[in-house]
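Hello again,

I reread your note about wanting to compare the complex against the isolated chains. To keep things tidy I'm splitting this into two emails, and this first one only covers the full assembly. Below are the input lines as submitted, including protein chains and any nucleic acid or small-molecule components. They are followed by the predicted structure of everything together. The single-chain runs will come separately.
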Amino acid sequence: MLAGRTAALASRLSGRGSGASIRGKITTKLDPKAFAELIASRRIAAVTGTNGKTTTTHLLTAAVRAGLDDDGGQVVTNADGANLHHGIVSALGEAPQATTAILETDERVVADTVRLGHPEILVLLNFSRDQLDRNHELAFLGRDWRSALAAAGPDGPMVIANSADPLIVWVCQRARAVVWVDTKPRWTADSTLCPNCGGVLIHETDSWHCPDCPLAQPEADWWVDGEEAVSRKGDRHHLDLQVPGHFNLTNATCALAAAVEMGISPDDALAGMRTVSSPAGRYATTTISGTKVRLLLSKNPAGWTESLPLTASDPLVLAIDAVAADGKDVSWLWDVDYEQLAGRMVICTGPRALDLAVRLDYAGVDHVVIEDLAEALDSPLLAGHWDDDHPIDVLSTYTPFQKLRRLGGLA
Amino acid sequence: MSADMNAAPVKIVLLYQSLLGIYGDHGNAVVLTKRLQQRGIDAELVPISPGDPVPTDGAVYLMGGGEDFAQTTAVHELKADGGLFTALDNGAVLFAVCAGYQICGKSFTIGARDEIIDGLGLLDIETRRGPERAVGESLSRWTMPDGTVSLITGFENHGGWTELGSDATPLTSMEVGWGNGDGQTDGAVQSRVIGIYPHGPVLARNPDLADHLLSTALGHELEPIDQPEIDALRSRRIEAVRAGRP
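Full-complex prediction:
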C-alpha cells in the first residue's frame, strides 16, 4: 500500500488529480485480487445511476455516520467520486478498520460489486443516455445489472430503486427485495420503449405502463411531496437540505430509504444529511478571477435538464469540453432545452465553447465565446452582476468542473 | 413544391424522435427550420410520434439515430402508416442519419444474434455488423451539384457497415473515419433520399448540406447566410479531426 500512497502524493503534487485513482491503479497492479478482497469483508451500501451518484453517496454516508455516531473510523466512502474499480480499491485500502463502506459505484462496476461484495444495499437512482461514445446502448448495462441481481438470488442486496424509471424496474424484476422511490423526473426521453418486450410505453401524469406486457410502474414506498420525504406508511420528514434542486430532494429520499433499511433512525439520517453542502465541489461557492461563482456540474442531457432551471445569474457561464471523461461526442448539446435561457446572456467557455455557441445561436440565446476558463470569469460582462449572496452560476461538464475547482482553490 | 408567399408554411417533419433521436438528432430539424426562417420563409417544425399519422405534405423528412429495438419499431410503424412513401412520391426530401440511414435500406441486422430485418427499401443499401464499431469524429468530401467540394464534419457511432447496390450512389468520399465501413465512402443518395452516418446535429456543422436539402425540396436556390460562428466551429473541428484530436 505504501507504493500506492507515494504515487498518489506524486499525482496530487503534479496537480493532476486528487490522487485517489492513481493510488488505486498501483494497488491493483501489485495485487489484482485487491478489489475482491477489500470489498468482501464489510457491510456494503453501493450507489449507482447515471446522475446523482456522488451527492447521494455523500448524503447516505452522512446519514449512516450520524446514526452510528461515527467520527470517520467505522464508515469508509469514496467521497471524491473515484468510482471505478481503482477508486474503490483506493478508498477501501485506506481504511482497513472500517466495517461499513458506502460506495459510489460506476455503472460498469455494479455487476462486480454485487458479485464480489454481496452488498446489503444497492441504490439504483436512474438510467439515461450518457457518454454514448463508450456506453453504446443503455439496454446493455441494464442486462448486466439484471443478470448480476438474478445470479445473487437470495444473497442479493435490498435494492432502493427508482420506480419512475422503466429500465430500472425491469432490472429489479430479478432482485431479492426492492424498496421503490418515485422520483418524478423531468427527463423521460430514454424510456420510450419497454425494456422487457420492446412495446411503446404509455406515460401518464403519475405513472407509466407497457400496453403489451405486464411491466408497469410499481407502487412507491417513498416519494417527495414539496420539501418532504413521504413513506407509504405515512411518515413525513422535512428534508431541509443545503444542496439545491428537486433532484436532490429525490436523491435524499433514496438515501433516507437506504439508511432506514440499514437500521438508522430517520431523525439521525436527516440530521446527517443536513450537514452535506458541497459534495465533491458540487454547488460550492468560491472566487475565481475576482468573481464570486457557484460551481454546478452536469454531465449529460438529463443532468442539464435538471440543473439549468437551478441557475439564476445573468450572465450565466456554461463550460463545455469533450475529452474522454466528458464523452467525446457533443451531440447531446441539442438534447438540452437551451431555449429556456432566451433573454439572458451566456458566456460560452471551455475547449468546446464554439459547439455550444452554434447551439445557442439556433436557440436564439445571446452569447459570447471566451474559451479560456479564467479569462471567461474575468470578463467585464460580469462586473456589477453579482454579489456575495448572488454569485455567478457556472455550469460545467466534468473536465472544466475539475479545472474550476482547482482555479477556485477547492481541490 | 413551391415557396409561394401565400402558401402554407414549409413543413420540416421530424419522424419519431422518441425512437430515432438518441444523439440530439432533432437538431437537424431545428437547423433546417431556422435556416428557412432566417431567410424570411415561413417554416414549421412538425414532430411526429409513433402512432401519429405521418403528414404527406412535408418538404423535408428527418430520421436520426436509435437503438436496435427502436429501429425495428420505426420500420414497422412507417410501413403501417405509409405517409412517408406518399410524401416521397410527391417530391419530398428524406434525410436520414446513423440508424435512420440504415433502416432506409433493403435490410439491416439487430441484436447479439444479428437477426436480419427488412428495411424501408428506399435506398439500395444493405447493412450488416462490421468487424469493429465505428466511433469518433469523421471528415469526408461531398461534391455539391455545382461541382465544388464541401467538407462534411461530424461524429459517427455505429456497429453496422453498409454496402451500396447499383441503384444508390455514395454521398461523400472519406478523409477520416469509417463512413460506410471501409473508410472509402460515407452515405448514399437515391432520388431524393439522402443518408449518411454522422449522427445528431450534423446539419449544424454542415450548412451547405442543410441548404442543399432545402433548395432541393423547394426547387430553387437560397441566398447565402453570413455565419461566422459556424465557420469558426467548422475550421476548428476540421483541424482537430485531421490532427487526430477529439
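For quick reference: The radius of gyration of chain B is 17 Å.

B.
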